[in-house]
Design brief:
By secondary structure, the chain is mainly α.
Length: about 210
């Protein structure tokens, strides 16, 4: 009986996935905006449910780590941050019982999230400099020199000296809005093409990430 259910589930999942994909494609060709909205709402509800399950799973994993290892300081900090942020946001946004003198979600974002992200950006800058030094010493080539030169120019243009001068602002604008934007658009186009290819393989039944 178990083998029969397993064999039956494989084609059933494939049929359901292919049918859902074809119906969504038809909604962009035929006047089926209402059907597309219903399907997208179902998908958003499923994604929200998956996010809640993921949060609870993350919480359970780190609670288990704290119980098994008393030195799991990172897991303990993550649990406290998750609980505090959730409670503060819930009380502040959806109830009228949160006192004004307590720090709210905006305070947590401004004085905790932003400094942490700034510290990570600083670490990334130091890591890039170290990587550039290793590339030049271990693998000298024209591409490594271009990488080091781009890194130095970008870092100098991002300093206060570079921002105060017109040349520094022009260089930073060219790098951020020219080179970086072009590379980012190339990556996005590659991701889009890969997504289309993956979707076509799923619609044709070659790939079955849903099982079976």
């Amino acid at each position: 009986m178990k083998k029969f259910i397993s064999n039956f589930r494989a084609p059933l999942g494939m049929i359901f996935a292919i049918s859902a994909g074809l119906i969504m494609l038809m909604t962009y060709v035929l006047p089926l905006d209402g059907l597309r909205a219903i399907i997208l709402n179902i998908v958003m509800i499923g994604a929200a449910a998956a996010l809640v399950i993921g949060v609870f799973n993350l919480l359970a994993v780190h609670v288990k780590r704290v119980e098994e290892d008393n030195k799991a300081l990172g897991s303990l900090v993550l649990i406290l941050a998750l609980v505090i942020t959730f409670v503060v946001t819930l009380l502040q946004e959806y109830t009228g019982f949160y006192p004004d003198w307590l720090p709210g979600s905006d305070w947590l974002l401004t004085y905790i999230q932003v400094p942490v992200e700034s510290a990570l950006m600083g670490v990334m800058a130091v890591t890039l400099v170290y990587a550039a030094a290793r590339i030049v010493t271990q693998r000298p080539s024209i591409f490594s020199m271009i990488f080091v030169l781009t890194l130095l120019v970008t870092m100098i243009a991002s300093t206060q000296f570079g921002m105060d001068s017109n040349l520094g602002q022009s260089v930073q604008t060219f790098i951020s809005h020219g080179l970086a934007s072009g590379g980012a658009r190339g990556i996005i186009i590659g991701v889009a093409l890969g997504t289309i290819a993956t979707g076509l393989r799923i619609l044709m039944g070659f790939d079955r990430p849903y099982g079976g």
